[in-house]
Amino acid sequence: MSAPLAIWTDFGGVLTPPVDVTFNDFCDRVGVPLYALKEAMRLVGEAHGTDSMGVIDIPLLDEASWSEELETELGRTFGLVADLENFGDRWFDGRPANADWIRHLAAFRDRGAFVGLLSNLPPSWERHRRYMVGDSHFDDIVCSYAVGSRKPEPEIFRIAALRAGRAPHECVLVDDLEKNCAGAVAAGWQAVHFRSAEQAARQIANLMDAAAPVAAPLAAAGI
Asked: What is the distance between the alpha carbons of residues 141 and 64, in angstroms, rounded to a whole number?
């Protein structure tokens, strides 16, 4: 009999509103154009040999140092004077949890699935995550800063599968980023590209149905 699937959900953009929505709100709040902030994040990441968020997901810099480098890059590249102090506090200010997806995760657990959180998350943002979605919603939590690897790298998927006690093909990533879904599939996982709670829940339910063991006919069982 196959073990129930391990459903690993992303945090930002899945258990929260879409990241693009938060970016727009944040940029309005700090008075920085969206294009400028994203480019500054890209340039700072590139300077450290990674992408926009890789700098603080592992982390290579703490949040305060990262914010200072972003301010410097905004001034150098765009001539903008910006105050990005307490970046995380302002990023999460007024940002609600996705209550619909939380309910679906609870339903998956009720059906016997392992439900975990698999997130690229800076350490200073962990308290915001816990405030929005408590640890009790998950059977395990794997965050990039704690394991030294981040999606879509294969190592974080290997770690998560081991923590769930499942083979790779018995693990499913639910993520709003296609590159992370592709990384999961490359690691032997299944993946659901999250666009809405209802869409993702339907796909997960179908995967769970397909993975469920079929009872042997009574005659074959000698009954």
From this structure: 25
